């Protein structure tokens, strides 16, 4: 319907916004100035302790500096009462003493019909409650007592009983002159296919009234007493009053409790909500016989910015959580998300509370996982990522999920969190290197040289590990100046076995924050490790003279330097691996294939050394033609001395 010109202006003029809002908040009188209509309170739209919700009575607008909710009296009623625009106007008009303009006949008829249905539903509530005290409900009362519901709980939740009769409620309502069509349209009865009287929708069930945010009875839920009934729980059919995808059990009371600071908990069913409330968790709701819908999710976010989903710890509960993640990802906004408290296997919130009490549940709520962690768990739990293809499949799956997030800031933070989790899963183990034969073989990090000798090229001649240390430093220093190269060299950097724990820390931080520019990356590393590691690294003599660091700006030269140094590290450590494996494989006799492997590794090492003349180590020519450092030549000589070479084609021994 349309409103006459000036009606809304008159409505806003007559109303005091502080009186409308004051029904839902507690004003902070230390911060407020009542004389000027400048009022502050904790926000009713999100959980907070400080007063960041501001009402300007003179302008007729409110604004929250925390969640950024804003609007006038009409929008406030719409959000807090979960009603449409015209219903909000009607509520405020009655409060202001204004007469609503006459509706068009069709709209008026629809409104009248809804009012009539609401009255019929209230009569049904009273009927079911009376039936719970009859002899026919003895088994139902025993069940409720066993579930811990005392007389006060039965009264609070208006729990009733539908007798196991075909026309028990029908006859009761007809005796009160309720029209047949109203009973049918309220979903309380169904027409007979055999031409007889309509029959009751609920028979032989414990009844739970379902009320909307305004407190109107709009539907019922019924639990079957017959264990062989096909439907353990049954909800009213959808009607002009009831849309199950737009309704929540305990909506109104939960919203009030959440406004007072309690966490909003999303449970699976009526009994979970009732149990939660009885143990003090009053801001609890449940969807009605279906997975959470987009409309219900938006309703939850209007109550609290980060509801906690408390689902059963069984397979069905986890599947429901995963479906909810897929629904929520495209709808996420800054400060608006979900957390998940997964119950122990085989238990729901009701079971946990009765077995272990409120502290056990509170602990699970305090440890509730953010959505990104459950998403990661879904894609990684129970899976093995022992090949590049499997790792790539994981990356693709997670990338596809993250791209569903519309908010660019949230999408970026999700990406960073996934990178952190991925790094923790695949990170190189410190002191561990590539497996090269023996079961359980692990590399041990080289002892760290003193700071005064690390920068000296002479250390390379005395300690082969120092050469690797120098090369690691060059790789890290170049990447610190050109962090855009971290991602292209991500795989090689992950596989780089750092000889220095500090190098490993630097490498880990660079991989975790590869999306940052040089300045931001330096800041993040300094925050984590302090300024000294970066200063020491960049001031080392052999680092400072690297051309792409001494004269920055040449990206291609930087890329080539990193590639060469990583190749050198890989080849020299390949020689170490072959030597270590050869020693393990010796049992006094070996074939020439073993010697060939060692020699080939030596040749690869020498090729790397020849491309890195800056190391200045002393090299000699080995018997197999490879040029090795004196230390490597001695080790190789000792190793070959243990091997008796057999001619090709003959067995050894």
TrEMBL record:
Q: Report which reactions are catalysed by this protein.
A: ssDNA + n NTP = ssDNA/pppN(pN)n-1 hybrid + (n-1) diphosphate
Toprim domain location, by residue?
262-344
**Does this entry carry the keyword DNA-binding?**
yes
Recorded hits in Pfam families, A to Z, give:
DNAG_N (PF08275), Toprim_2 (PF13155), Zn_ribbon_DnaG (PF01807)
Q: Which UniProt keywords apply?
A: DNA replication, DNA-binding, DNA-directed RNA polymerase, Magnesium, Metal-binding, Nucleotidyltransferase, Primosome, Transcription, Transferase, Zinc, Zinc-finger
Give the protein's cofactors. Answer: Zn(2+)
Family matches, as SMART domains? TOPRIM (SM00493), ZnF_CHCC (SM00400)
State the free-text cofactor note: Binds 1 zinc ion per monomer.
Q: Which NCBIfam families match?
A: dnaG (TIGR01391)
As for family, the record states:
Belongs to the DnaG primase family.
Q: Describe its function.
A: RNA polymerase that catalyzes the synthesis of short RNA molecules used as primers for DNA polymerase during DNA replication.
The name on file for this protein is DNA primase
């Amino acid at each position: 319907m349309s409103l006459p010109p000036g009606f809304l202006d008159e409505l806003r003029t007559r109303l005091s916004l502080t009186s409308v809002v004051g029904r839902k908040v507690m004003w902070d009188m230390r911060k407020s100035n009542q004389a000027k209509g400048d009022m502050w309170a904790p926000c009713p739209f999100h959980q907070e302790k400080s007063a960041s919700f501001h009402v300007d009575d003179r302008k007729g607008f409110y604004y929250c500096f925390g969640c950024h909710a804003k609007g006038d009296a009409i929008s406030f009623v719409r959000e807090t009462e979960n009603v449409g625009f015209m219903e909000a106007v009607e509520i405020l008009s009655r409060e202001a003493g204004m007469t609503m303009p006459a509706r068009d006949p069709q709209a008026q008829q629809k409104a009248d019909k809804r009012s009539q249905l609401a009255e019929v539903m209230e009569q049904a509530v009273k009927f079911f409650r009376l039936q719970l005290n009859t002899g026919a409900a003895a088994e139902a009362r025993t069940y409720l007592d066993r579930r811990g519901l005392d007389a006060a709980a039965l009264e609070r939740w208006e729990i009733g009983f539908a007798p196991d009769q075909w026309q028990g409620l029908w006859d009761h309502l007809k005796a009160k002159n309720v029209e047949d069509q109203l009973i049918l349209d309220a979903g309380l009865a169904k027409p007979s296919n055999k031409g007889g009287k309509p029959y009751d929708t609920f028979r032989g069930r414990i009844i739970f009234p379902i009320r909307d945010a305004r407190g109107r009875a709009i539907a019922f839920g019924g639990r079957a007493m017959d264990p062989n009934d096909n439907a353990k729980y049954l909800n009213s059919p959808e009607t002009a009053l009831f849309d199950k995808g737009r309704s929540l059990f305990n909506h109104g009371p939960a919203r009030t409790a959440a406004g007072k600071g309690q966490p909003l908990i999303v449970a699976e069913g009526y009994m979970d909500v009732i149990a939660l409330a009885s143990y003090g968790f009053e801001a609890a709701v449940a969807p009605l016989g279906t997975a959470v819908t987009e409309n219900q999710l938006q309703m939850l976010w209007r109550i609290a910015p980060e509801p906690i989903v408390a689902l059963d710890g069984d397979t069905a509960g986890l599947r429901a959580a995963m479906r909810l993640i897929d629904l929520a990802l495209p709808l996420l906004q800054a400060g608006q998300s979900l957390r998940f408290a997964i119950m122990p296997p085989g238990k729901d919130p009701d079971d946990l509370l009765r077995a272990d009490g409120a502290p056990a549940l509170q602990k699970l709520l305090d440890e509730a996982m953010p959505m990104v962690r459950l998403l990661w768990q879904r894609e990684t739990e129970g899976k093995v990522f022992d090949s590049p293809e499997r790792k790539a499949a994981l990356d693709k799956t997670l990338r596809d999920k993250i791209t569903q997030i519309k908010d660019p800031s949230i999408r970026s933070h999700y990406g960073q969190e996934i990178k952190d989790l991925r790094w923790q899963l695949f990170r190189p183990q410190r002191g561990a290197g590539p497996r090269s034969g023996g079961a359980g073989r692990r590399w041990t990090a080289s002892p760290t040289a003193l700071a005064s000798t690390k920068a000296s090229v002479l250390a390379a001649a005395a300690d082969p590990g120092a050469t690797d240390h120098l090369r690691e430093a060059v790789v890290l220093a170049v990447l610190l100046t050109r962090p855009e190269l971290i991602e292209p060299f991500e795989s090689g950097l992950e596989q780089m076995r750092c000889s220095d724990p500090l190098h490993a820390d630097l490498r880990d931080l660079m991989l975790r924050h590869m999306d940052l520019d040089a300045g931001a990356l330096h800041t993040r590393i300094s925050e984590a490790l302090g300024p000294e590691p970066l200063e020491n690294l960049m001031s080392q003599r052999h680092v400072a003279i690297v051309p792409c660091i001494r004269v920055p700006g040449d990206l291609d030269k930087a890329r080539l330097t990193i590639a060469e140094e990583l190749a050198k590290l890989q080849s020299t450590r390949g020689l170490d691996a072959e030597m270590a494996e050869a020693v393990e494989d010796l049992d006094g006799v070996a074939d020439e294939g073993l010697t060939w492997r060692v020699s080939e590794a030596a040749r690869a090492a020498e090729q790397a050394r020849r491309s890195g003349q800056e190391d200045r180590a002393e090299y000699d020519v080995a018997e197999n033609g490879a040029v090795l450092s004196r230390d490597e030549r001695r080790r190789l000589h000792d190793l070959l001395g243990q091997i008796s070479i057999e001619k090709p084609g003959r067995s050894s021994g």
